[in-house]
Amino acid sequence: MSESKGWPRSILLASDLDARSDRALDRALQLARAWDARLVVANVVDANAVEAHAMLVRDPPDWYRGSDPVHAAEKQLRDDAAARGVDVTLRVEQGGRVAERLLEVAHEEGCGLVVTGVARQEPLGRLVLGSTVDQLARRSPLPVLVVRRRTHGPYRRMAVASDWSAASAHAFRTAAALFPDAAVSVLHGYEAPLAGLADAARDQLRAAARSRAEAEGRAFIAACEPPGGASAVSLVAERGDPSLLLRLYAAQFPVDLAVVASRGRSAMADVLLGSVAQRLLETSPVDMLVVRDPGAR
């Protein structure tokens, strides 16, 4: 990280070098320029891909002089990056588990952030993460930025999903260090046991639950010591599922980045996002920054 700012010196873009990666590439280039950082673009090629391509063109026309689709994509990427004044390092790896190899490259290149995109967009706007993105979000010790939207400039407002835990506080501080100029809202969805209660008792429980959530939220924000002070952070504490709360809030206000903490290791030695964080990642209508719990083994 830079000594004066909490910015990575290098950024890893996990890319499959095709058109679906354009949004992630644009965001990675914007961040690299803003942070004066080196951009490392990593692509993991299936071990059988080259052989499959050779078989496909085993009887080409006389005028065909051979082509490597990966090298062609690399050239296009270099042209795109050079036009925007960013120092780009390309790493094309072959074989191995894709997410693990990408994280190895991030470590080897000294990267402080992983940027990636969704796998595809289905009818009705549903975005599919893809197994590699899901594994990166679960396993990466580095913050992972999952890009959904087109880049129109720096992030201006971010919503931090919080359950008041130490992991959420770490995610808040990490996001604030990466994007210090973005306005911050803290979102918290809480439950209140209301079934089978009379109206008066239900209203009393609702009011008590809201007051408790708001008091805990104010204490959480103050403990995070945001750069602009606690008064500059908006608190949104509402009953209901946090993933629905994020979608409603992002539809009403100009949020362009959501932040969530991942959780640590299970007995199966895999990093758990947690059920709420998983839903947030899968359904967020905006870019999502996933920050690893520093207490994870």
TrEMBL record:
Superkingdom of the source species: Bacteria
Keywords: ATP-binding, Nucleotide-binding
Coiled-coil parts of chain: none
PANTHER family associated with the record: STRESS RESPONSE PROTEIN NHAX, UNIVERSAL STRESS PROTEIN RV2623
Domain UspA: 9-148, 155-292
Keyword ATP-binding recorded: yes
CDD domains recorded: USP-like (cd00293)
Pfam families: Usp (PF00582)
Native species: Pseudoxanthomonas taiwanensis J19
Name of the molecule in the record: Nucleotide-binding universal stress UspA family protein
Gene Ontology molecular functions: ATP binding
